[in-house]
Each structure stands twice: as structure tokens, then as C-alpha cells.
Write a structure and sequence with these properties.
Number of strands: 5
Protein name: GSDA2 protein
Distance between the termini: 22 Å
Helix content: 55-70%
Shape: globular
Order of helices and strands: EEHHEHHEEH
């Protein structure tokens, strides 16, 4: 398991998220996902996901949307996102995981 803990964030990625991250690595889309999630975390509450803009293939879009939704947000058809529970912590944990994977994959 991938456990993130800092002074402000304490969150754990789920097994499903880890499997999606592995698939993302295989599809070589981690850096695009990192850019998307980084933008969302900076907004802190106002979420808008446009996976189509960053990922041209529908399978990559669906993978990314599933990964984001497992981080505590619900995606709407128009690209807006409704936060659930503590989405900032979960999105921050996902951001750190994507960043680490980007660094490790070179």
C-alpha cells in the first residue's frame, strides 16, 4: 500500500487506485494525470475535470476519471466535480503518488 502522511495530509490510496495507477504506468499516461490532478488540488474545492483535453484516447480518459472518482469526488457529465467527504486529502495523496511515479518512470 501507498501511505501518504504529512503535517496536513494523512490519506491512503485504495487497492483499486493502486491497480489503476499500475495500468496508467503501462499506458504511459501518468504525467498527463499528474497535470490534471495538480490543477484540481490547486483549486481546493472548485473542481473541473477535462480528461478529454489531456488524454486523446477514450480508454485513457475513462481510466483517469475512475482514478479521480476513487479519490472522493463525483464526476458530472459537464466535467464539473462534486466533492464528497474529504476529497482534498484523497486528491493530495493521489497527487503525491502520481508525482512519485512520474519521477521514478523518468
Amino acid at each position: 500500500r501507498f501511505w501518504i502522511q504529512t503535517q496536513f495530509i494523512s490519506a491512503e490510496l485504495t487497492e483499486d487506485q493502486l491497480l489503476l495507477l499500475l495500468e496508467s504506468l503501462e499506458r504511459k499516461i501518468v504525467s498527463q494525470q499528474l497535470n490534471l490532478v495538480r490543477t484540481q488540488v490547486k483549486r481546493k474545492g472548485t473542481f473541473l475535470v477535462d480528461a478529454k483535453q489531456l488524454l486523446p484516447h477514450e480508454e485513457d480518459q475513462m481510466l483517469t476519471i475512475a482514478l479521480v472518482e476513487l479519490s472522493g469526488v463525483q464526476l458530472q457529465e459537464d466535467g464539473s466535480v462534486i466533492p464528497r467527504d474529504q476529497p482534498f486529502e484523497a486528491m493530495a495523496a493521489l497527487l503525491v503518488a502520481l508525482y512519485a511515479l512520474t519521477l521514478l518512470s523518468g
